[in-house]
Task: structure prediction
Amino acid sequence: MKKIGQVLHTYFGNRVIAKVETPPKIGATIFDIRKKPIGVVLDIFGSVKSPYIEIKVKDQEAKKIINSPIYILSKGSEGKRRR
Result:
């Protein structure tokens, strides 16, 4: 996993805004430190040097993750897909 930023505040109930160093792709799954999925990226905004992302939080209360670090899976940790 790779740390990409930190959650700043809630937005419309189940959404949060996070400050990121390198923005993931829209639709990417965001994880907490325990590798538990937090939600998916809905939007990327701000300047290129200081990007922010909007995350739709699933299966937990958005307020509980304020100030929490956020992660994405690095390419090596995704594992091989089975057919």
Q: What stands out?
A: Strands lie at 2-11, 15-20, 29-31, 37-46, 51-57, 69-72. The longest strand covers residues 2-11.
